[in-house]
Each structure stands twice: as structure tokens, then as C-alpha cells.
Amino acid sequence: MTQETAFYLLAIIAVLAAVTAVRLRNLIHGVFALVIFFAALAGLFLLLMAQFIAAVQVLVYIGAVGILLLFAIMLTERVTGDDGRRITSRGGFWGATAALGVAVFVLLPGIQQTDLNRLPAELAEANATAADANATMAPPHTVEALGKRLIEPYIITLEVVALLLTAALIGAVAVSQGARRVEDEEEASP
Amino acid sequence: MSWELIRDILITTVPLLVIFPSLFAFTTWIERKALARIQNRIGPNKTGVPCTRISLFGLGQPAADGIKMLFKEDIVPKGADRLFHLLAPIVALIPAMLVLCFLPLEFPWAKFVQAPVQAFLLDGAVIFFFAITGLNTLAVFMAGWASRNKYSLLGGMRAIAQMVSYEIPLVLSAVIVVMLVGSLNAADIAAAQKGYQWHLFTPWGLAAFVIFFIAALAETNRSPFDLPEAESELIAGYFTEYSGFKFALFFLGEYIAMFAISGLAVTLFLGAGEGPGVAAVPALSVAWFIAKIFALIGIMIWLRGTLPRLRVDQLMAFAWKFLLPLSILNILIAGFAWHVAKSGAGTGLKAVVWIASLITLYAVARGLNRISRPEAAPREYKYAE
Amino acid sequence: MTLEGLLILSAVLFCVGLLGAFTRRNAVVVLFSIEIMLNAANLNFIAFWRYGENPELLHGPLFALFAIAVAAAEIAVGLALVIAVYRHFKTVDLEKLNTLKEE
Amino acid sequence: MSLLGGGIVKGMAVTLRNFVGSYFNKERLVTNDYAWRPKEDAELPQSAGQYPKEEGEQLSDTTTVTNYSRNFPMLLHDGKEGDTPMDTVRCVACQICERECPPQCIYIEKMYDENGKYIKSPAKFDIDVSVCMSCQICVEVCPFDAIVMNSQFELSTPDRFGGLLLRRDDLLKSNDYYHQIHPGEAAARDQRMADEKAAKEAKKKAAAEAAKKKAAEKAKAEAEAKAKEAEAAQAEGAEEKSEPEGGDSKEATE
Asked: CA-based diameter of chain C, in Å?
């Protein structure tokens, strides 16, 4: 029962925060709404016994992405982050229609077609009795197991991700630095 | 929601909520006294028991401060974002309180009722610790931005830059311990150091501890890294516009964060609650844990009384050019040493590894220090002659 | 909390992200929206892992982990691009970045 | 080759020495004991004592308020203590202090009689002590020794704006009071004023005598000149004319 309540609570928070984040005029408020959304998702991950992912969610999304977004806004917009006079969105009706269309015609049929009966019997049972089980049920995985899986079958993926991150880092630095250099030259030439 | 669950929650969290805030009050008194003595003053020594002449070395001062804070006018600047201005101190306090739950404080009364000895017995306690400590940055930004004051905003931006930079050496030095123990669980890390095999007593552990401690100073905005709240430059940085109870909350949050990060340092490097007499009286382990936390906080206060504040460029150069390479090298050395130890090498080889790693770390630290230091040209005085 | 509930939640979140990406003019907010969509996908990974077969193989969390890493890289590059665009055009309004459009 | 981090350790040793030393060596406690106390000043107490004692005992409380205390300015008058006699006030509302005050906390209005004639007295003299920074520049620039520093520090008030604005009548204090709080300084100031007055008088006298002498000489010279005039050329007449004029103007100023 507790689990059920927590799920609905977190789901409502997540959806509301996401809507707020994408519709708010004030960008800084938007970032904080986004942070609440990330936190709600971390809560959902914890609820789903994926605690390492929850930790990484908090660490990467709230700790790093949120801060990066704040920095980007401070560097590009005016410091106050909001401008009531400016039109900040366009095509609200068509956007909503398109999003709703995707939901109704692409995602929901997909969910309906998923064969949900393929759940392992014992797991389904555990879910049914999750209320009293949640205190005693051992987590289905440990961080150690995750680490071992990461190193043994997925080592190449891990390396590729590491390479990707390095490339992204260098790329980000190059992109934001290069622009400045061009600007300097432009300023210097006339 | 069974009764046992509620009991367990109460038994593991209420002590944390009682002990640390009351220690906070005591710590402010210690800090004021110690700083005063360092500066050849006496410090608070008048406030004692109310309505009497008993002063008790000024121990009533924290209570008096608290009452003063409660009754002060709560001022919100005219252009401020009222909601965020209100939320910021709360957001600053909650993560700090939350991470206390990850410390392996083994409260003795938990054993009598078979409750878990730790508030959160999570597998990834250490990574959760770092994840939740990172939320503090957001609170600082909220406070700085919501005040609509350029000094606050500057302080907030400085704080973010500083915290993001110093989080990397902080995490990398903790990684060493995680690597050596093979677990992210705080209780496992504490157990692995039983028998005075503290990580502090190894060269790589010592280096990691020093890096961790320096980065922790920066994370908690303690002097000499208190640039975000530099009074002489930014008035008070991100809490310039805070007064009364909100300011008190910020203050509390800052001290709780100090306790939490010192507690993590104690867990990772100083053998958690281990100490003489724990074997006979297990209850002593909590006392030892808190005593170690206080030792670290004492060093923080001592450093605050000693060192002047860094410049922003020095701060950044120190994090990126000194601490970061050193902590990466330290990981390599620790990994190498771990392999040597695991391969069943003799004492001689181990000693060689010890001495070699000590020398390498020291030499590299020296070299980095020389390279990373901003070049000091001979000063030219234009006006002061 | 059922698999179906989780999937519907993630679909709703994905559509919210889509809505933001379609309708907002600020490049940073478009990045927000993309993050929301990525997170919705992550939720799916975890949900399928939790309720699917062979949870001990940990495919779901691993995928989510890699997705988070890629998202972090994406956001870093994306924000660098936003800043570069801002430096060049002095705006991050996507409506105004129309130099390729026929006048 | 110094040890890495050796500087920090050295600094910490210094602070540790201060920390421990302050418990054993009472002379270190600069705020508690007057370590800077001049040896010859026997009246100065050994210890500054602690601030909040009994209410209203500040003046007699020599441990808190010493004659080294300078807090905010006050205006001096030469009358009796307690009353506010405007005829003995030293200030002439010259506004030098108003102009010199760095935080501009002084506001002065001159006093005029009903005919609109300036009488040398301030009609208004306000000091906003919430702004005053106790720099004593007003004391230094005052040519009339009218403004000096008071040692009163208990100025707290529940009113944020009006309560800390001291009016002329709040600021007026008698010279006796000044003698009471800063005996040495007041005596020195009185002595200096007396000396200056004496010197001025002596100068006046000397000038008067010199003028007399000069006048006598001039008379003599004029007589001689008149005697010579008959013989002298006409061109010298201008010189003769100018000399007595100069002498006259000098006398007039004196």
C-alpha cells in the first residue's frame, strides 16, 4: 500500500514538475522545476530497487546537468531569467496536438500491445504483495553485481562511453572556446 | 506501514536530529572561543544561566544567539523572488541533515530492539552521500539568485564554481577507499578498518585524506576557501540578504554539512567508531565517532584562525592543477599497492611499495605545487612608496 | 504500481518533453525537454528490468547507466553549442536563428 | 628546499602558540588588559572590565569608560552644567566641520536675529550618530575648540531614525563635563586656548606698540620729509603719500 501511494505521489510530482519546467516563462524557475522532476524520477528508481541508478540520477542530473543548465542560462539570458514581455513559445496548439497524437497513436498502442503476461510468476506475486514485502525483500541487485556486469560483459561499451565522454568534454570546450576566438578576430580585424 | 518500521525510523533518525543540532550550538561556541584565543581575545564569556550571575564560560551564548535570531526581523528585499528566497535555506539544510543518515553511527540502543544500526543501510551509501551533498550547490544558487543583489549573485556563482571544482578531488579521493575495500557501503568500509587498519596509516590513504580534507574545506565553504561568503569582498556572498531565522537556518545547514563531511572523512579514513575501549563497551563507538568529528572540526577552526583567504584564480588553479592530478595519481598508486598486497607479496616488497609510493606522491606533489602556482613576478608598487 | 502504470507514466513524461521541444523558442528549454524525454526512456528501461525476465542480468540498469552517461555528454555539448550560438547571434531564440531560410 | 606545506604548519604553530599562550600569559589579552597602557598613567585601570554592568553607571565606571574613550562628538559651552545657554556656546556655525565631515553626518544652520543679521551661533546643529564614524576630523578642524569627543556610548534607542539623530541641545555639554570625562585633554585644551589668547593679546600689544613707534617714526620722518620737501624734487611726492597710507591700513586691521 505504501509503495502504491509513493508511486502515485511521485508520478504526479514528476508530471507536474515536467509540465512546469517546459511551460514556465522564468527559465531559472524552470530549471528548478526540472530538478524536482529529476528528484521524483530518482525516487521512482529507488522504488523500483534500482538504487545505484537513483544515486547516479541525483549525482549526474541534479548535481551536474541542473548546474550546467543554470550556468548556460546565466551566460545567455539576462540574469533575472525572465522577461514577461517576450513571447517565449510558439505553436502551442499544434505542439500540444502533435504531442497528444504521438501519445495516442504511437506510445499507448505500444503499451497495450506489450505482452504484460510474460512476467515471471513469482515476481508478479511479489509485486502483488509488495506492501508487506518491501521491508524485508532483498534488493534484486547490489552495486557490486552491477560493477561486475559493467566490467565483464560490457567492458567495451564502458570504454566507448568513456571515450564518448572525453570526446564530448573536448568538443564542448572547443566549441565554446572557438566561438570566442572567432569573435576576437572579428573585433580585431576592423 | 508496520509499527516496527515506524519504531526503527524513529530510533535511527531521532538521535541524529537531536545530537547534531545540539552539537552545532556547542560548535559555534567552541569556534568563537578558539578564534578569540588565537587572536588573543577572550571570546564570549558573559552569557550563562539567565537571571543569575553564573556565566559558565559563556556557554549560554549559542542559546542567546538562537533567541536573537528567532526574534530578528525577517527582511526580504523588494525585488527578490520571495518563494526562492524562503526555500533556499531549507534546501540548504535538508541535504545536510539527510546525509547524516549515511554515517555508520552504531547507536547502542538500536541493538536492543533489533533495529538497523544505521538510518540508511544502503548499498551505495558513499555515492548517495556525494549525490545528496551536491544539492547544496543548488541551495546556494537559489539564495544568490533570489536575493536580487549583485553581491549575492556573485557569491552564488563563485560558490557553484568552487563546489563543482572541488567535488571532483573529493570524490576521487574517496574512490581510493571504495576501491581498497571493494564496497560503497559505509558500514562495510568501517568494518574493513577494524584492528587499527585505518586507511590514514597508508601513504595513499594519507594523501587521499589530505586531499579529501582540503576539498571538504572548500565544499563546506570554510576558510581559507570561504570565497563565496567573503565578507570583505562580497559583504557576505549569497546570504547577504538573509536575516533572522532564515540566516540561522543557513548557518545551521553549514555546520551540519561540516559534521556530515567530517563524519564521512572519519568513516573513510579514520576507522569510524574505532578506539580504545570500544571492544569492552560498544556504546563508546558513538562517542569515539563524534570525538573524531570534533577533532577534524577543531582543525578546521584552527586553519580558519591561521590562513588568509585565497584569491579566485588561486582557488581554481589549486583544484584543477594540483588536487586533481594528485588524486588521479593517487588512485593509480593505490591500485598498484592493492595488487601487490593481493598477490601475497612479502613484507619486504610491501615496504618497498610503501616507501616508493610515499616518495612518488611527495615528489609529484612538490612538482605540481611548483607548476600550478600562479607565477609571482616581482611586485611593482605604483602608488605605495 | 504496475508495469502498465509505469509505462503510461513514462509515455506521458515523454509527451510532455515532446511538447516542450515543439513549442518553446528558447534553446535551453528545448534542452530541458530533451532531458525529460531521455529520463522517460530511462524509466522504461528500469521498469522493464524490474518486471521483466532475468532481472539478475541487470540489463535495465546498465542501459540506464549508459543512457545517463550519454545524456550527460549530450547536455555538455548541447550547452556548449547554445553558448556558441549565443556568442555568434546574440540570441538563443530558435525562431531568430533562420539564416538558412529563404528571405 | 622547504617542506611541502611547511608554511601552513609554521603558521599553525604560531596560532597555536597564541592560543595556548593566551591562557597562561595575561599580558597577551589585549582587549582585556591595557597592554598598550602608558606606564606613567596611574589612573588608568588595569583591566577594561566587561561591558554590561549596571545601568547608568557608565560615567563613574572607570573600568569601562576611561579617559581614552572617544565615541561621538559633542558641542562645548562655557556655562554651567545642565542648562543650555546659547550665549556661552563656543560654536559660531562656521560650517567647517560640516564641510570636512567624511560621512557628512553634520548639519548646521546659522542663527539670525529678527533683522536678518548673522549672530555667531548655530540655530541648528545635528549629528546623525548612526552615520558618524568617530573619525574626530571635526574636532581637529574646529578653530574655536567648540566640538570635542564625548565618551558616552550608551546611545541605543528603539527608534531607528529619529532616535540616533542628536540635536543641538542634546549635543551641548559644559566645559566642566568635558573636564570630568577627559581631564588631561580638557586641561591641555584650556591651557592651549589660554596660551593662544595670551599670545594673541601679547601680539596685539606688541603690534600696538610697534604701530605707535612706527607712527612716531613716521611723524618724525614726515617732519624730516617736510623739511626736505622744499629741497627735494617733485617726483618723490608719490612715495611720501603711499607710506602713511600703508601705516594707516595696518593700524586699522589691528
From this structure: 58
